Amino acid sequence: MSRKILVVGAGQSGLQLALGLQSHGYEVTLMSNRTADEIRSGRVMSTQCMFHTSLQHERDLQLNFWETQAPKIEGLGVSVAAPGSHDPGPTQRAIDWVGKLDGIAQSVDQRVKMAGWMETFAQRGGQLVIHGAAVSDLDYFARTYDLVLVSAGKGELVSMFGRDASRSPYTEPQRALAVAYVHGLGPRPEHPDFEAVRCNIVPGVGELFVMPTLTTSGRADILFWEGVPGGPVDAFKGVKDPSEHLALTLELMEKFLPWEYARATKVELTDANGTLAGRYAPTVRNPIGRLPSGGAVLGVADVVVANDPITGQGSNSASKCAAAYLSSIVEHGDKPFDEEWMQSTFDRYWDTAQHVTKWTNTMLQAPPEHVLNLLGAAGQLQPAADRFANGFNDPADFENFFYEPAKTEAYLASLTQ
Ligand SMILES: Cc1cc2nc3c(=O)[nH]c(=O)nc-3n(C[C@H](O)[C@H](O)[C@H](O)COP(=O)(O)OP(=O)(O)OC[C@H]3O[C@@H](n4cnc5c(N)ncnc54)[C@H](O)[C@@H]3O)c2cc1C
Where is the Styrene monooxygenase StyA putative substrate binding domain (predicted)? Predict the structure, then answer.
């Protein structure tokens, strides 16, 4: 008899797991609080730029349905505004380079991907339940399933999972987030022949990420501000009107990042739901959730490790978590999914996730001198630019050249000998 698994939450991790388990012959029920159509016609949820390893997990499951349509992102660039240069007068760039990615990155609007994957899951015979699950529902269902996986993102169900204070240095949101999906953005004149994610850092103020995507109306670009709380970019809270949101996005670009604004003068929103604003505190949780009647459920991806999107890792981590959990489930065969197995399944994921959390939490701080030296040197040393860019695919590599001044110096010296 095939094993019965309940997956609660149909985002990157939940759908990838549900479809993966389904292809291995498990009897999967997927609970989603929205239908595919509601997701497709709803608000944007992320910027969801994914790098090689996580895209490969999707390819391995033959879920890369949009790979040929989505823009192929070949580079990742970093620009740093010269501190204070915007006050008064136009901002200067202290740093500006682009690194080449070893494998392409892609962003497929989650409205497109999750709606499409959910329909595929149902077409393949999966049981889809449209219901916003409460803890009491899970308490009831847990008894009839061999395993309950909670992949409901940062929503209310996280209350079942205790916060791991030792792995969560922040108790407050570290950035105010503001996203706008646009058509009509021009190329960066420095590399008109290839697509790149552009990270623009304004020290003390925040960051603007610009990235190509595939959305419901085809190719588009995303303008994504991360504002330091209380600073000039933390200005989107009361803005309800999407065109006002875009106007504010552009106004801040003109003030702080005129080189990005220069290619954005003709943009318009992709659709009335193409904007998003919010904030959350980065949080790592205990992986095992407690049900009122004593049963245990396993948390997946953002439920257990939610990092700030400053490093664009959440969807990547969700894909990596889904892939790791899928292997753990399949390898476990017919044995019971007890708490010991749950803990070791999470620990296996944490082996890679801990590097993402460490790097992301570091990037939320003002960069120390050795990091500014590294970013500056990457403008002259292409291998350093390429290595930093490829760190977005494998953040574990930052251990080797990023955190400790001595390692950064040794790395830079090795490039100039
Ligand atoms: C502004 C922004 C920009 C980002 N940019 C990037 C980026 O460039 N690259 C990157 O890799 N990551 C990025 N991320 C992070 C990424 O989007 C998330 O980390 C990722 O989507 C997490 O996947 P998940 O499967 O854990 O949860 P989610 O994708 O959040 O999916 C959870 C699903 O569960 C549903 N749900 C919630 N509660 C219930 C319930 N009670 N019952 C049933 N269903 C429920 C939700 O509606 C949702 O569909 C960004 C995030 C934000 C906010």
Answer: 153-263
